[in-house]
Amino acid sequence: MARKRTPAPSRAPELDTFPKLLLDNAERFAGRPAIREKEFGIWQSWDWNEVLGEVEALAGGLAALGFRRGDKLAVIGENRPRLYWSMCAAQALGGVPVPMYQDSVADELAYVVEHSGARFAVVQDQEQVDKLLEVREQVPGIEAIVYLWPKGLRHYDPDLVRDFRDVQADGQRHNEANPNFFRSEVAKGTGADTGVILYTSGTTGRPKGVVLTNDNVLRQAWAGAEFEGLGPDEDILAYLPMAWVGDNIFSYGQSYLTGFCVNCPESAATVMTDLGEIGPTFYFAPPRVYENLLTNVMIRMEDASRLKQRMFHHFMGVAGRVGKRLLDGEAVPFGDRFRYWLGNLFVYGPLRNTLGFSRVHLAYTAGEAIGPDIFDFYRSIGINIKQLYGQTEASVFVTIQPDGEVDPETVGRPLSNVELKLTDEGEVLYRSPGVFHEYYKNPEATADTKTEDGWVRTGDAGILDASGHLRIIDRAKDVGKLRDGSLFAPKYLENKLKFFPYIKEAVCFGDGRDRVTAFINIDLDAVGNWAERRNLTYSSYQELAGHAEVYDLVGECIEQVNRDLASDPQLAGSVIRRFLILHKELDADDGELTRTQKVRRRIIADRYDVLIDALYGDAERCYISTEVTFEDGRKGSISADLLIRDASAGAAEPMRAAAD
Asked: Which of 8, 249, 409, 571 could pair with 396 in a Cys bridge, judged by C-beta atoms 3.0 to 4.6 Å apart?
């Protein structure tokens, strides 16, 4: 909800690195909370001056271990204050943090460690230590591993594996012997220095190391903060991977620039509880998170009393009529304003509180398209959710939706310091101060992506509407044609399918073929709840996915998508003709998704080629056996005889998602 804010005062140009900003914040925001962490059910807080002390001690400890200017520091774990401090400490010494995904398997870490040349690592716990020790057998360059949590690490080699607290104690002794060391090292840093290396998700091959300078990150973080009027009064929940560029901008860059507080949840399992306790003012989540939240709301409403259901649907009807107009500051008749006020008292307010959004005045989503119905739902209950478009190579920000110009079909206008243009083929290109320096050790890929005059080829196909807003259609390389010449945009189709709470993932096929077909992953929670209310028994995802009634349910979702497609002259040829429900969920550990949950089309096409052939034949069933990776790393296999269904594009009434 809108509220009075205190924007951060402008920053001096010489504050062009994170450590310089930290020194300034320790004076400017002395006593204000900088970061919090929930541990053992209790929130602990550090102010900016205390953070400076922690970072200074750690920088001295890393220096005592032999960390030097230009060295790379692997940072692996969940969002933790000490891991953020590790990034700043490395930058203070002129080094480069390389955050890595904590759920990466050892082989994935081995590639990034070797490619980046990381000699040192700060990690969360024994799991990450063990993975790095396994990696070290293949990539022996790591000289020291520093851990946060000592559980299980008593008998490890103390010369190689060190406790974070011990390293800081060594650092304090180092700094006492060299009293001007920290500040003199910080003073050597510049905005042109490499600030971080972030590895892409690797949808088409090995991940690429995106080199971002301090200027790249801080200039774009500041441009975004200025655009939204962010200041030191904000609270943000840091729960997205530290290896993702969004976390580096929102939880790290904008915090250091504006002085607002970052809150680290206790664990991934407690994020929603911690969200409610903190009540952030500024929130970011990919569409899937918003979709899951809404799915849970609808599931709970189905179990509520008939009176509560009637009240909910009545006031949501009011919100649908006037909520977005009120949020955008438009004129609304008094009667509707009063009805909305009642709805806010009995439904919207309690709902925002349940979601943890009572104080949110700004919410972003990006990465994939979000369903218009889902997007409009949040805005109608007073949550200022907006879409933005960005990339790692852009330091996030390319376009943002301005207040009052929010359209679920677009991703907004270019930020003030961003230039945007489309090629004749419709590919989106941009140029800005946030444009990455290079792909690390990969000049060929750099030249393919970035032109000599600084324009970045996004690989995304888009259009600009009459008001200058950008609409992303699909990945340019994925846009194809059916055999009859009809446009085929698989990501667009998949996103429309994923708008339904029952469908968690979808992969569409059709380029060069005579019709479109689809693989479907059901959402186990949503479909499970639906099945239980219909007394359908099941003992596993595979058994539930194979139920004929579940196929009927998914068929209704596809039918509604087909009706929408049939009404669009450009996409009418892309109606989905056949589909199947996969016997397993697509999984990053099996290489089918990236660590950021993007589909790896090439791997899926190779692994499930027998199913694709069956979709384009006349078979009604197809047998497949698939290798899977269990949580403990063991390999196994799952086999199934999958049902294949034809999809209809009939004229049935639209299905009310998750309400029947």
From this structure: 249
